[in-house]
Write a structure and sequence with these properties.
It is built from eleven helices and 13 strands. With 272 residues, the protein is an alpha+beta fold. The chain has two domains: 142 residues, no CATH class; 105 residues, no CATH class. The chain binds zinc ion (ZN).
């Protein structure tokens, strides 16, 4: 099958096989943050159209892609498309945020909305040059923030921060925002340049909420991606729950048809 990603990059791929699932139980692989890129590298064959990755990443038609160069938006989009080749439906259970009773969620992956990267975003993926965004009213006055798209090679860092349980709650989300920032330059007063995750995080933590809103909006616009948020009303307390598509075992193991799930009870009835 041909998978065409949001950026226009396309490649030939096969479906996941039972043996591919064994990778999902490799704890070392999951911890390393390379599970998603591995699951795509397993099924990807030749590149049809290198799209923006023809530039600095050197992708060529007819060659095998390496997903460490591919943007996170394209990676998530490709994962959903490969999953849909096996099954469109997704079934999972999550506790309700209000009453904690289990919500049984069934939805179709074709319903997730997809957003293409902007022209500036495509140019950035092509050249790998950071995009400049001006944000006023920070603790350093007006600053120029140089941002970039996250790629497959950032997954180990994202996973490390997201899974470290001894971190402050909410810190992982701030890290995800700050990983997009290559450099911050103050334009007024004494010239100052902030680089490196620790220093960027420190600057970030001191800012007003509007800085996050402005930056998040700009990043969403240039990177594109898929909306992985779904709404589910709790049948017990009627509260609307905002859930995220779980990109874990439940995503990679399509649920068995309902008829199959009852097989054991049917065979025991026969035996009886
Ligand atoms: Zn509830």
């Amino acid at each position: 099958m041909l998978i065409t990603c949001l950026s226009g990059f396309s490649f030939h791929a096969r479906k996941w096989k039972i043996k591919d699932r064994r990778k999902l139980h490799d704890k070392r692989l999951a911890k390393s943050g390379q599970l998603f890129t591995t699951m795509l590298n397993l099924v990807a064959d030749k590149i049809e159209d290198p799209g923006p990755y023809a530039g600095s990443c050197g992708f060529k038609a007819g060659e095998k892609p390496d997903f460490k160069h591919v943007s996170l938006g394209d990676i998530m989009d490709a994962l959903v498309q490969v999953r849909r080749a096996s099954a469109d439906e997704m079934v999972f259970a999550e506790p309700c945020a209000r009453c904690s009773k289990m919500l049984h969620v069934e939805f179709n992956l074709s319903e997730l909305s997809r957003h293409k990267p902007s022209e500036i975003g495509l140019e950035h993926l092509q050249s790998d040059k950071p995009i400049s965004i001006t944000i006023s009213d920070t603790t350093l006055g007006e600053v120029e923030v140089f941002v970039r798209a996250l790629r497959g090679s950032d997954m180990p860092t994202i996973t490390k921060w997201a899974s470290s349980t001894d971190q402050e709650p909410g810190l992982a989300e701030d890290v995800l925002n700050c990983l997009h920032i290559e450099e911050i330059r103050s334009q007024s007063g004494s010239a100052k340049v902030i680089r490196g995750l620790q220093d960027v995080l420190e600057f970030w933590g001191d800012q007003d909420f509007h800085v996050q809103d402005e930056l998040a909006e700009a990043i969403e616009d240039f990177t594109g991606g898929i909306d992985t948020e779904i709404e589910e009303e709790c049948p017990h307390c009627d509260v609307e729950n905002q859930l995220s598509v779980p990109f874990d075992l439940r995503f990679f193991y399509p649920a068995r048809p309902t008829g199959r799930r009852r097989r054991n009870s049917i065979s025991s009835m026969r035996l009886g």
